[in-house]
Amino acid sequence: MRILRGYFKTAAMAASGVLGDDPLFLVNYLMRFLRVALFFSLWRLILHGKGAIAGYTLEMTLTYTLISEVCRDLLECRTWLEMGFWDGSVSTRFLRPMGIFAQFAAEWTGSVAFHLVAFSLPLLLITPLLGINPLPANPQAGLLFALSLVLAVFVGLGLEYLFSGIAIALRLHPYVFNRMRGALGELLSGALLPFAFLPFGLGKAFAYLPFAGQASTPLSIYVGSADAPRLMALQLFWGVTLWIIATQLWNRNREKVIAYGG
Amino acid sequence: MGDKSLLHWIRHAFRLWAVYARMDALVIMRSLGTMATWIISDTVLNVASIMGMLLLAQRFDGIGMWSKYQVLFLLGYGSVVDGLMTTFFGYNVAFISRRLGRGQFDHTLIQPQPILLSLMTEGFNPTFGLPTLIPGIALIVLALPHLALSLSAGWWLLFGVNLIASTAIVLAFQFAWGSLAFRAPRAAEELSSSSMQLIVQLKAFPLDGLGGLLAGSLIFALPVGCVAWLPCRALLSISKESFAFWYTPLMAIGFTVFATVMFWKGLKHYERVGAQRYSNFGFRN
Q1: How far is Cα of residue B32 from the mean position of the Cα atoms in its chain?
Q2: Counting one residue from A and one from B, how many pairs have CB atoms under 8 Å apart?
Q3: What percentage of chain B exceeds 70 in pLDDT?
Q4: Residue in B45, B194, B208 closest to A183 by CB
Q5: CA distances from A6 to A11, A104, A108, A154 (A)
C-alpha cells in the first residue's frame, strides 16, 4: 500500500507539472482540436451520401475519429523513457525505492489524467454540437471497449518498454526515434484511419500487428464493427509476448543501459 | 556596413551558403551510421506523415473535388515547402523562439553583417534538407503527367512564385509567433516547435469541406491553408478565378510585414532588457 502511494503521488505530481512545466499545452490542444475538426470535414467530404463502405457508415467513422482523439494520450502510451536515459535524468530515479519503468508509467498516468480532464472531456461534451454521436454502438460495445482499452494500455506500455529498450541498446538518438515512432505508430495502429479504409489489403495485414491492439481494436469495438472476442484475444497475446520480449531485452542490456547517457 | 553595396552582400550570402553547406556535409558524414540514421529516419518520417492522406486518396480515388493525382500534387507541394524550410532555415532559424529563448540571439547580433543576412544564411543545411525535399519532388513528378495542365513557362513561373510565397508564409508565421520569446524567453522557448507542428500536421488537408469561419481562420490566422491547399487550387485550376494565382503571394507579403513588425518590436524590447538566460544547445557554433 505504501509503495502504491508513492506511485500515486508521482502521478499526481506529473499531473500538476503539466501546468508548470509545459505552458504550451493550450497551443497543443488547439492543434489537436483543429486536426480532429479537419478529419471530420474530410470524412464528410469523402463519405457523404455513400452509405456504408467496408462496414463503416459516415456516422461510425466520425465517432471512430472522435474517440481516437479523445483517448489519444491513453492509446499512444508515451512515457519518454528513452529521453530520461538520453539526457541522464534517469540517474536520480535510481535513487528512489521504486521500479524505473513503473516511475515513468506513473508519470505518464498523471499527465494522461490531466489531458483527459482538460481536453478530452470538453471535446467529448461539445461534439454533439458538431453533429457527431459520441456514444458507443450499444451498451455491450461500451463495456467491451472499456476492457479492450485496458488491454490497449497493456499492449501500448509493452511496446513502449520494448522500443525504448531497442533505442537504448542501439544508441539511437531519441529525437529521431520519437519522430519515426510517432509517425509510423499512428498509421500502423489505426488511430489515424480505420483499417477498413486502407487500400491494397493493408488493413487486413496491419490488423495482425501488435500496433493494432493499441488503437484499432478498441476503436472498432466502440463503433460496433469488430469481432470483439477474437481481437481482444489477439491483444492479450501481443501484450504478454511484448512484455516477455521487452523484459528479456532489458535484462540482456543491463550494463549498456546503465552507461547510456549517464 | 552602410557603405557596402547590395551586390557585395549578395556575393557574401553565396559565400556563406557555400561554407554552411560544407559544414553541414561534414556533420552528417562524420560517420556512416549517423548519416544512414538521419537520412533513413527523415525519409520515413516525411513519407509516413503524408501516407494517410495518400492511402485515402488511393482508396476513394480522390478526396472530394480533388482527384487522386491532384491530391498527390498537393502532398508533394506541401512536402517541397517543408523541404525548403528545412534546407534554408534549419539549425533553429525557423524555430526562432528557441534561439531567442535560449539567449543565443547575441551570436547573431555581434556578427559584422546585417541581421537579415545572418538569418537567411545560418540555417542553410542542404544535406539534412534533401530527405524532405526529394520525396516531395518525386510526388509532383509522379502526379504531373496525369493532370490536364498546360505546363508552359508561365505556369512554372507561377509555380515557383507560389512555392516561394508558401515558404515565406511559414517562415513569417514562425517569426511572428517566435518573437514572443523576446518577452517571455522561458515560457515561449518552444513556441516555434508547437507552431511548426501545427503547420506540418495540418498542411496536407484539403480545406474545401470546412465552414467559412474555420477555413478563414486556417488561411488568415493560422495560415495552414496557404502552405499547399490555396496555391494548389490555383495551380491545378480547381479555383477558376483568374486572380487565384496571386492569393498566396499577396498573403505572403501581408504575413511578412506582420512578422517583421512583431520581430522588430521584440528586438526593441530585447535592446532594453537583454537575455536573462543562456544555453548553447542547438545553435550552429
Answers
A1: 28
A2: 87
A3: 98
A4: B45
A5: 9, 12, 14, 21
Residue of A nearest to B204 (CA): A38
Contacts of B226 (CB under 8 A, 6+ apart): B165, B166, B169, B219, B248, B251, B252, B255
Which residues from B are below 8 Å from A65, CB to CB? none
Question: Nearest CA of chain A to the CA of B74: how many Å?
Answer: 15
CA distance B249 to B252: 5
Interchain pair B51, A176: CB under 8 A:
no
Q: Pick B44's closest partner by Cβ from A180, A197, A202.
A: A180
The residue among A172 and A119 whose pLDDT is bigger is A119
B1 CB within 8 Å of a chain A CB: no
A44 has a chain B CB within 8 A of its CB: yes
Compute the nearest-CA separation of B206 from chain A (Å).
8
The predicted-structure confidence for B188-201, as pLDDT tens digits, reads as follows 888 888 888 888 88
Residues facing residue B63 across a β-bridge = B66
Confidence of residue B2 (pLDDT cuts 50, 70, 90): low
What is the CA B66 to chain-centroid distance, rounded? Answer: 24
User: Do B190 and B282 contact (CB within 8 A), yes or no?
Assistant: no
Taking the C-alpha atoms of residue A185 and residue A38, their distance in angstroms, rounded to an integer, is: 20
CA angle A51, A55, A61 (to 5 degrees): 75
ipTM of the complex: 0.79
Which among B217, B215, B186 has a CA at the least distance from the CA of B103? B186
- Taking contacts as CB-CB distances below 8 angstroms, the residues of chain A near B101 are none
Record the cell numbers describing residue A102, joined without a space.
513503473
Q: What is the pLDDT of residues B33-85, one digit of tens each?
A: 777 877 887 778 777 778 888 888 888 888 888 999 999 999 999 999 999 99
Chain A residues touching residue B214 (CB < 8 angstroms): 37, 41
Find the mean pLDDT for residues A8-35: 81
pLDDT at residue A259, as a whole number: 56
Give the pLDDT of residue A35: 86
- Min distance A1 CA to chain B CA atoms (Å): 38
CB half-sphere exposure, B248, CA atoms < 13 A: 28
